[in-house]
Amino acid sequence: MIETSTIRASAQGGLFARWRGLRTAAAAALVCGLLAACTGEQFQKGYILPPGALEQIPIGASQDQVLIVMGTPSTVATLNGEVFYYISQRAERPVMFMNQKVVDQRVIAIYFDKNRQVMRLANYGLKDGHIFDFISRTTPTSGQELSYLTPLFKLLSFH
């Protein structure tokens, strides 16, 4: 009788040890999965330049050839000839839920003459300009501005 109870106790102890090891492994896998979900991301916005595309556009190429190679431009300017702009931006976020940081910004400008032939190519980067928000998406509301009379009225209202 004593031997069978000892065997049962050691079998139960081994079963608990296996469950404890399995729980530890599952907890470690869960922690690793949660940490992996918080790793950084990269964001590509705008035009993605195909490799070797600019080399296919020599000076003097037609506007149609540029459209075939590069595709539709992000925007077009028509002042003193025509200019095609291809705009892109790459941003990174090192850890989830943090703000994005702009890593690279490109504006490829293709200038045409009056005959619609390529006159000049330009590749502007992040160092060539400043990043700023053209549209702030905030609307000022009345009542928020402080005038020189506001402190005076506040002082008089407390007495």
Mean pLDDT: 76
Q: Tally of extended strands?
A: 5
Per DSSP, the total helix count is 3
Our measurement of the CA-to-CA distance between the termini, rounded to an integer number of angstroms, reads 93 Å
User: What is the name of the CATH topology of the largest domain?
Assistant: Beta-lactamase Inhibitory Protein, Chain:B, domain 1
| Low-pLDDT residue spans | 132-136
Radius of gyration: 33 Å
**H and E string:** HEHEEEEH
What is the helical fraction, as a range of percent? 25-40%
User: Which descriptor suits the 3D outline?
Assistant: flat
| Top-tier CATH class of the largest domain | Alpha Beta
Largest sheet: 5 strands, antiparallel
The helix-and-strand class reads: alpha+beta
- Indicate the proportion of strand residues: 25-35%
- Total discrete domains: 2
Q: Per CATH, which architecture of the largest domain?
A: 2-Layer Sandwich
